[in-house]
Every structure is written in C-alpha cells, then in structure tokens.
C-alpha cells in the first residue's frame, strides 16, 4: 500500500460500490457523484494500469507473455480471454492487479481528501470475489433481475451474449453478495426510482459517518 496516499486519505470514509454485470453500478455511481460523492471506477483504473507501460504492466507481461500488446502494454482482450477460461491464471492476475488498483484509487482520491471531501467510493464488479482485503467502511450492493440485466446489456451493445454469460458465470450470485452488503440498491425500475433510493442511501451513509 502506498503509505503517503493512505495517510492523506485518513480523513475519508471509503465505501465499495458493487454489483454483477449490468446491474447498473456505473449508473448508480454517476448518481452518487452527482450528489457530491467521490466515485472512482476500478475498471478504468485497471485499464490505465495495463496500458501505461509501467511496473505492473511489465510484471503481467512477464507472467502472461502471450497477453502482450507490445513490449510495454498488456492486451486487455487477450488477458480477459485467458482468465475467463483459466481460474488459476485469474487468481494470479488478480493478486497482482487488485492491490495495485487500491493504491491507484487512493492516489486518485487523495486530492479530494485534501480539499475536504469525506466520502469516497470505489466502484468494482468483483470486490467480493477478490482475495485482496480492501479496507472499506461498508459495501453498497446494486442488484437487478437477470432478465433485466440481459436486456439492458444487449441494448448497451458492447458485449455479445457469450461474453455476458461468461462474466456472469465468474461473478458471485446476488443471493451470496447480499450476505456481505451493508446497503442495497435494487435497480429494477426506472431511473427516477433508483435516484430516490440513492439519495436515501447517501443520507444513511452521511449519518453513519457522523455528518448529519
Ligand atoms: P458493467 O458491469 O458492465 O460495468 P454496470 O453494472 O455498471 O455494468 P450500467 O452500465 O450502469 O451497469 O448499466 C447497464 C445498462 O443499463 C446501461 O446502458 C444503463 O444506461 C442501463 N440502465 C441502468 N439502470 C437502468 C434503469 N434503472 N433503467 C433503465 N436503464 C438502466
């Protein structure tokens, strides 16, 4: 853990925002951000880390030489293909990547912490599946029925149905995730209903951290 970034963010409360593919995490994350919460997308951090030609990209290329895009960057497509069919490779990758994502998250939020923000969230699909113990104050879970998720994802159009099924298969099912959730946002209805629920949850969080 990058100690300086950790110290800088000690006045902040860090929450996890999670949910299976297509449940609406990013949509909910944007709603929290609109209400002034610092929300960081872990997928985006992972993309930056894999593309940046730095130490982590080099380590991953050493570990999985077939997944190199070039000598300094990792091909995310090849890596995704490999880990979806190889659970051992997936674990080795995540053991490298997830602590690095947490450090990158802390580095991102430290400027906001210095500016006085007290509440930050890391948005990630596989927070609960990870072996990395993320030091979070609590977990917000977004859920939606499978049929709703499939319909929304097919409308979003960035993944084909095989890719969606493969991702769903490696994610913990909602009934298990619920055991770990501190706050639940059921995103099965329209966006206004979800926005209302987001406002309620934020009120509870602010109460939890002693702000109201
Ligand atoms: P991923 O795991 O792939 O990142 P996600 O959980 O972040 O997905 P989103 O991208 O937020 O999910 O939502 C999936 C799609 O469903 C998006 O196109 C989004 O606009 C739409 N969507 C989310 N919530 C609702 C809702 N309540 N009503 C209608 N459409 C929604």
Brief sketch in words of this structure:
The protein is of the alpha/beta class. It has helices at residues 3-8, 25-34, 42-51, 55-63, 76-85, 87-114, 146-156, 161-170, 174-177, 191-208; strands at residues 13-18, 38-41, 119-123, 138-143, 183-186. It is globular and about 50 Å long.
Characterise this structure.
The chain is of the alpha/beta class. It has ten helices and five strands; from the N terminus they run H-E-H-E-H-H-H-H-E-E-H-H-H-E-H. Strands 2-3-1-4-5 form a five-stranded parallel β-sheet, with helices on both faces. Helix 4 (55-63) packs antiparallel against helix 6 (87-114) and helix 5 (76-85) crosses helix 6 (87-114). It starts with a helix and ends with a helix. The structure holds adenosine-5'-triphosphate.
| Strand content range | 5-15%
Label the overall shape. Answer: globular
**Separate helix tally:** 10
Summarize model confidence as the mean pLDDT: 92
Largest sheet, in brief, is: 5 strands, parallel
Beta strands, count:
5
List ligands, each type once: adenosine-5'-triphosphate
Spatial strand arrangement across the major sheet:
2-3-1-4-5
User: Termini separation (Å)?
Assistant: 31 Å
Low-confidence region ranges: none
Assign the structural class, choosing from mainly alpha, mainly beta, alpha/beta, alpha+beta, or little secondary structure. Answer: alpha/beta
